[in-house]
Amino acid sequence: GGWRTAVEWFNGKLAEGEDPLTVDTLRDRPGTYPQRKMSYVLEESCWRSRFEEGSDKDKVRMMAQRGHKAGAWLNVVPHLCHHISDPDFKVLTKWWLGVPLETGRGCDLC
């Protein structure tokens, strides 16, 4: 039932040439398909689905988020030399999450 459906879905998302997953592999050889790989396949599939359905604004935002260290600003330890004002942080966070910005101005892609 459920396991077989999940395994079939997972195998449909694998890159060409990758070994398919089987229910027997999950049972007999735990760790053969590490959580990291399975999570990556799931995340990539969800991302592509949302990207294809998104507006141009969403696509620009999503592509920007995939850049190298794009989310580093969220992990910075607060310090005097690493300061973002509260209003700026609110705007950045809203943009990051795709919440409409109420700036009254801006480009068509913000």
Compact summary:
The protein is mainly α. 54% of the residues lie in helices and 0% in strands.
Description:
There is one protein chain. The chain is mainly α and 110 residues long. 54% of the residues lie in helices and 0% in strands. It has five helices and no strands. It has helices at 2-13, 23-28, 35-53, 56-65, 86-97. The longest helix is centred in the middle third of the chain and has 19 residues, at 35-53. The mean pLDDT is 78.
Contiguous helical run count: 5
The structure class reads: mainly alpha
User: What gap, in angstroms, lies between the N and C termini?
Assistant: 44 Å
In which range does the helix fraction lie? 40-55%
Query: Could you state the order of secondary-structure elements as H and E?
Result: HHHHH
Q: List unreliable stretches of 5+ residues.
A: none
Q: What composes the largest sheet?
A: none
Radius of gyration from CA coordinates: 20 Å
Report the count of strand segments: 0
Summarize model confidence as the mean pLDDT.
Answer: 78
Which word captures the global form? elongated
Strand content: under 5%
